[in-house]
Recover the amino acids of this structure.
């Protein structure tokens, strides 16, 4: 384990030793055809591409890490995606990985990853976007998801900014790389911003309401929130046990597919759906009960998506959910409030003055929601999940808005999760697909969803939809 | 935080300094009437009694901790309830607590507690009954439940023996204090044994199948598994997210009631049930579909319980559950297997050779159960919870067997959880009430249960039933 002396908190700068290429390693990187790759090339590689080049010896992990650290060093003063960086540790991990024989190199060999700072990483502190844990020692072990990524060869570069305990919509200092005057969304603010800005090809976040999809839409990244329960949340800060879900940010679908294989989302051959046939697929367009909140950006993206899908030969069916789904919002609120009351009780007792009023309120509302209301919400939400699966299975996939519009101006408020919460409480997989833009030219994503456990199908659908939407310009 | 040098692993003995009473503190303890209390008196106090004496200045926390450490020192060589003890840390916590003004003293002021070793305690290692975490550093922060107990004035004495990741029925070296040739049950083996043997008045365990109730029955302790979700499992090793539930062992009902108040199980005045009237209450006796597994000990206890309740004026109604409840066992198996596959994937990738074959099997069964079967199990179990609540609400409380019989001979196998799993998957509160014995004179508990969130009612019922059953002789 890393001694605390090797931890390099952001703000203290990087040790010069980490940023000067080590003498014994090649300082150049080449693509598969022998073309020299610049730092700019390296920061735009996908995880799969980078790992392939490192596995085949075209690039060392040390070279790659240095290029990303250099990018972060140039950019993160303004973006503030990182709350903790372990530059020396990353270089030493890279060196060890460079020493592995080709056959020992994993599918994420040498790929630096950012981890939302409510998730434990061995040897790094966990601060949860709160001052309560300011003096805790580093974590003794990796959270489940971190352990899997590390076993696949990933380098854990550091911790990314989160709103307080991933449970408030009060923004921090992290900015949207696509417009520094705007929020990147929350609560997985730093993970989305770090990926959008080319600091890392992959980052891990969480969603309890809209904390993966919303920052994905605002920053123009692919964001996957898998089916609830597909990934272990052991080692992750708790907010609402029935809604907390881990997820990934990437800049492309290939990396999401690669990650899904590695972490075994929807394992088993029985879950491989028949191939999606774009020219004959049936797509449900679900505006959802939240549609009145859609601004011009989302309205425009919605119409454009319909045109693009129909041009590609897909059949678009506008589906209105049965009225009972309107009640899901109240049930979700009851479940999240009740579970948050339990989750935050210890920190409330310990240091309530350090908690945001919205978190304090969960604990202080001892009477409401009642336990009877909670049981009713559990049972009704469960029945609706079953009903949702049946509706969604009638289609190849479902498209629905991600957010009301482009990222709001200002850092105070991380934006509305109105369009995301339904899929979270339904435990459905949800994937933000970027590519379209709003009135200011900023990203407006749309969400691909489907029945529970249809993660592979929605990844395939995301690939199809992503191609139709086209690529966004890189951030700034 | 404690430096690692102050940690005293079991087996290395206690530092003499911890076992000699400190000079500046009174070495005597008195009860409320001024009677001198012996070491034997101190080890049989309830948490509430001990804390009361310490709050009122009749005894120091240091005196109390020393008497318990001395008991452990005498006994634990044979029992092996503890896998880690922090004698010095406990004494320094006790000293700090002794320095508090009376009005700062909490409801568990000075009460030493044992924590199952799958639960994080700040400054102590977490080994999970496995060799995988042998070299991890101490935890940087308390698990949620530990934080609450500590805030109430509890002294965290150490970590208690668990089966591997609380997920196997292979026993370790921990013995049943009531018969050293027998298992104390699992997986919360050490927590139950430590309470039964007078090492601590309170210990924390967990249940995913029968891991609280079974050791409670075998060791003759009160064991409360509250409604699922009533306590936060943040900082607790994961086995099955939908079934993992924290719970408490005590030697009496008063301490369980005290703990329930402190940790806010079933908060809110709306959850206070009308007082139970023993002479007119209606009690459902549910043998459950597992009744054919009941041996002579449980059969005898069952008949005796019926006689005792009827003598007290209660109306006993024998209730047979609708046939659909038989399917709950399969649904539970599907849910636990699927969730365990997700939970153990990281450790499987990391060190599968160190995992018990039954844990490896969860991860290796990639095809089975299918995700379709899992969704069906989730939805059906949820419907049954609702149906169960309706059935149980027709009665003041429900009585059902805890285990097939007395603790089995041998340490290899921790016993059958057949009678416990139904209430776990139904998320119902369950309380093992000791007092009756089997053919060898060893404890056979019965379980008080009820609808979800009726924790306060089952505590009240447990008090009534416990009085009827009478006290067991102290262990050995």
């Amino acid at each position: 384990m890393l001694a605390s002396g090797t931890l390099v908190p952001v703000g203290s700068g990087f040790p010069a030793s980490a940023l000067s290429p080590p003498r014994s390693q090649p300082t150049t990187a080449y693509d598969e055809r022998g073309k020299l790759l610049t730092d700019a090339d390296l920061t735009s590689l996908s995880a799969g591409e980078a790992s392939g080049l490192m596995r085949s010896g075209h690039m060392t992990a040390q070279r790659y890490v240095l290029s990303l650290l250099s990018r972060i060093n140039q950019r993160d003063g303004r973006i503030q995606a990182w709350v903790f960086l372990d530059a020396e540790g990353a270089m030493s991990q890279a060196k060890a990985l460079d020493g592995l024989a080709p056959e020992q190199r994993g599918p994420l060999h040498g790929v630096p990853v950012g981890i939302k700072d409510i998730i434990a990483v061995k040897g790094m502190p966990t601060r949860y976007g709160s001052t309560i844990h300011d003096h805790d020692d580093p974590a003794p072990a990796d959270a489940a998801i971190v352990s899997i990524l590390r076993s696949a060869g990933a380098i854990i570069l550091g911790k990314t900014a989160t709103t307080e305990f991933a449970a408030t919509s009060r923004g921090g200092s992290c900015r949207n790389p696509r417009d520094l005057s705007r929020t990147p969304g929350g609560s997985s603010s730093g993970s989305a911003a770090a990926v959008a800005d080319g600091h890392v090809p992959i980052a891990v976040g969480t969603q309890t309401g809209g904390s993966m999809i919303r920052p994905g839409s605002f920053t123009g990244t692919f964001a996957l929130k898998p089916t609830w329960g597909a990934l272990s949340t052991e080692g992750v800060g708790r907010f609402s046990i029935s809604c907390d879900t881990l997820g990934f940010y990437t800049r492309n679908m290939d990396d999401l597919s690669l990650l899904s294989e590695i972490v075994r989302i929807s394992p088993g051959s029985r879950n491989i759906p028949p191939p999606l046939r774009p020219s004959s697929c049936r797509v449900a367009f679900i505006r959802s009960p939240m549609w009145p909140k859609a601004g011009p950006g989302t309205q425009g993206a919605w119409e454009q998506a319909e045109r693009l899908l129909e041009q590609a030969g897909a059949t678009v069916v506008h589906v209105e959910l049965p009225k009972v789904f309107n009640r899901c919002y109240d049930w979700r609120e009851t479940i999240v409030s009740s579970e948050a009351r339990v989750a935050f009780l210890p920190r409330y007792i310990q240091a309530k003055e350090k908690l945001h009023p919205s978190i304090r309120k969960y604990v202080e509302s001892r009477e409401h929601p009642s336990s009877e209301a909670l049981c009713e919400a559990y049972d009704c939400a469960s029945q609706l999940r079953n009903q949702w699966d049946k509706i969604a299975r009638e289609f190849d996939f479902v498209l629905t808005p991600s957010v009301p519009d482009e990222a709001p101006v200002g850092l105070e408020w991380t934006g509305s999760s109105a369009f995301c919460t339904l899929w979270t409480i339904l435990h459905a997989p949800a994937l933000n697909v970027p590519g379209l833009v709003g009135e200011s030219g900023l990203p407006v994503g749309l969400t691909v969803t489907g029945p529970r456990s249809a993660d592979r199908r929605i990844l395939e659908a995301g690939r199809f939809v992503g191609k139709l939407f086209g690529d966004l310009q890189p951030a700034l």
The two ends of chain A are 37 Å apart (CA to CA). Chain A touches chain B through 61 residues (CB under 8 Å). Residues 328-351 of chain A form the longest helix (24 residues).
